[in-house]
Amino acid sequence: MGLHLPIVWSETHREHLPEGEVWVGVRTPGTEQPERADRILESLLEDRVAEPMTPGPLAAGELERVHSPSLLDYLAGAWTGWQASGHEEDPGQDRVVPYLFPTPGLLGGIDPVEPVSAAARAGRFTYDTMTLIGPGTWDAARAAAGVALTAADLVIEGAPAAYACCRPPGHHATREAIGGSCYLANTALAAARLADSGRTPVAVIDIDAHHGNGTQSIFYEDPTVLTASIHVDPGQGWFPHFLGSAAETGSGRGEGSNLNLPLDPGTGDEGWLAGLRSLIGWAKAEGARSLVVALGVDAAQSDPESPLEVTIEGYREAGRLLGEMDLPTVIVQEGGYDLESVGPLVREALRGFENAGGSD
Predict the structure, then answer these.
(1) Which pick of 7, 132, 247, 250 has the fewest CB atoms within 10 Å?
(2) By the 8 A CB rule, do 357 and 319 touch?
(3) Candidate list 13, 16, 172, 211, residue with the active-site label
(4) 329: Cβ contacts below 8 Å, ≥ 6 apart
């Protein structure tokens, strides 16, 4: 039986060409490449009833729901600023890369001045050296945000569920900064849209292999959005390293509205699915009325760089468990980088979701 839930995507994703990452100072081939989304859509179209939809233009102010105006202004002009700096010729860097970061150790409690240098400005708004900006990055990131918001609107208008095929991904982007190959917080934008429609509390369940630190930080003091993430333990040497522990539970009015479940590297289906059941049980107990799934498939054992050992059957079962929550649901694509398996993994997760009756 073919997939019935609406699929939203944008060809504009292909304009984002990071052309690599800077890892411990070395330019390496990037895994977040255009073919990821193309492979996903190709796999879904093999099992498809209706054609995918494309988003309309973003309305003014939509991105400011989860991002600061200063970050958005920076992203809009980062590439032209880099060109004007001459760094494409000297030293020959064809992508925006930071070289200095305003950490507490540098500032010593002094409020920083706004930097003029393009490379310093990159460090002001970027927290790693992996998240490069090229000439088409801003347009692609905005298109991905539009994909997530359109999928949320479909659910608000009555669709039981919708899938947002977003690229670049978004769950590592914070209100003030980009990082982890993420530029705009697609999952958070979808959750905020559902929250603004009154479907609160919204549960965000992130099953990407890595902690959804951006989504967590955006809603950390917001009791209307419950954020839960199951991921490889950052304390054992995995991105984002400094965040993602079980001790992070929210603060202020949001105290108790965040749940992290770190797993040991190498955890397979049994432990991963048991953890997911715990997150689902928590969201139900907290009274969730709508759901956003951050669908990363980079925990799969078929991915040579995966820190976990989840099988394709595990992803199908995860989809079924999430579908059994029987909530209005937006499924937002996050990680998944092995080109041979990313499409089938997403397809099986969506099949599992639909077979649970979550979108009937």
Answers:
(1) 247
(2) no
(3) 172
(4) 155, 160, 161, 162, 290, 291, 292, 293, 322, 323, 353, 358, 359
3-class secondary-structure state, position 204: strand
Tell me which architecture the domain covering 7-61+136-355 has in CATH: 3-Layer(aba) Sandwich (3.40)
Give the position of tokens 């081939």: 29
Whether 241 is catalytic: no
Question: Residue-wise pLDDT tens for the chain (360 aa)?
Answer: 578 899 999 999 999 999 999 999 999 998 999 999 999 999 999 876 668 999 988 998 999 999 999 999 999 999 999 999 999 999 999 999 999 999 999 999 999 999 999 999 999 999 999 999 999 999 999 999 999 999 999 999 999 999 999 999 999 999 999 999 999 999 999 999 999 999 999 999 999 999 999 999 999 999 999 999 999 999 999 999 999 999 999 999 999 999 999 999 999 999 999 999 999 999 999 999 999 999 999 999 998 889 999 999 999 999 999 999 999 999 999 999 999 999 999 999 999 999 985 444
pTM value is 0.96
Residue at token pair 């199951």: 230
